Structure prediction request, 271 residues.
Amino acid sequence: SVPLALLISLSISGLMVYRRSHRGIYLADLDVAFQRKEIYPVFQPIVDASSNQPLGYEVMARWDHPVMGAISPNSFIPLMERFGRLDTLLTELVKQCQGQVPTGCYLSLNLSGEQLTQSFRDPIQFVQSLLSKLQIDANQLMIEITEREALDYENPKLIATLNRLREMGVTLAFDDFGTGHNGIGCLKAFAPDYIKIDKSYVHTLNGDAVQKPVLEAIIQLAKSMNIGIIAEGVETEGQRQFLLSRGVKRQQGYLLGRPGNLQTANAAEDR
Ligand code: C2E
Ligand code: CA
Ligand code: CA
Ligand code: CA
Prediction:
């Protein structure tokens, strides 16, 4: 059947990605992909859910491979991270964002804590060069700090970098809050401007009675620490309303707008 064939081809291409990456061919593929513009940004709005006004746009990387088709960021971002290509990615995405940021809106970029401590020799200068390429002010840039491994919030270099970014006027958000390692400890070590509540918590509003108190606790925690909240993965009107009832106005998700190009990024009804 078609689904079975699809499954098989998907797992074969998954294996290929894995094997190729271990033979070192994948790195060349990555560089070719950048040259051929197979890697490009899409934009997902962050919306004031009480008025449906877009506040900003998060940049998400996409890779359309000529043979393998669309490759998920969940598989190529870790590879780029391993091969030290995340800064190339960011530079390329930003190049393709030039002159596109809608007035009055901010742009939100995903950066890993590791990038900020290890990959960039001078993270502040790097961010400054991004701003000048984008021709936006620091206060129109949000950085979402994502982390796959434990984020080392005791690392004085990371804390210093975050503080300097904030002094520049850049808005800082901790991504995927509540998953993995980014917990209460890192909020205490460095209070970001925002946390982004991971979609897995938002989706518990579909009926997971056990997890819902955790979502409520995260909201309470952020409020008590005076940290702003952005909810990710809002897919249903029920989720939107519940979050609004808890004062979480800044929302993002398929209900409010799918990742797309900037002209249609906020037209959720188009899809
Ligand atoms: P993330 O930063 O947590 O981004 C949210 C992910 O959820 C995105 O997946 C987005 O397309 C998806 N999403 C948005 N709204 C909804 C919704 O309502 N329902 C559901 N089910 N999903 C929704 P995507 O684009 O596949 O990206 C996956 C992850 O890859 C991102 O998670 C982020 O950690 C990473 N990533 C994507 N682009 C970049 C990038 O340019 N740089 C870096 N460093 N990481 C990136
Ligand atoms: Ca993000
Ligand atoms: Ca993430
Ligand atoms: Ca997430």
Observations:
- The radius of gyration is 19 Å.
- The pocket of calcium ion (ligand 4) is lined by residues 176, 198-199, 232 (CB under 6 Å).
- Residues 2-23 form the longest helix (22 residues).
- The CA atoms of residues 38 and 64 lie 5 Å apart.
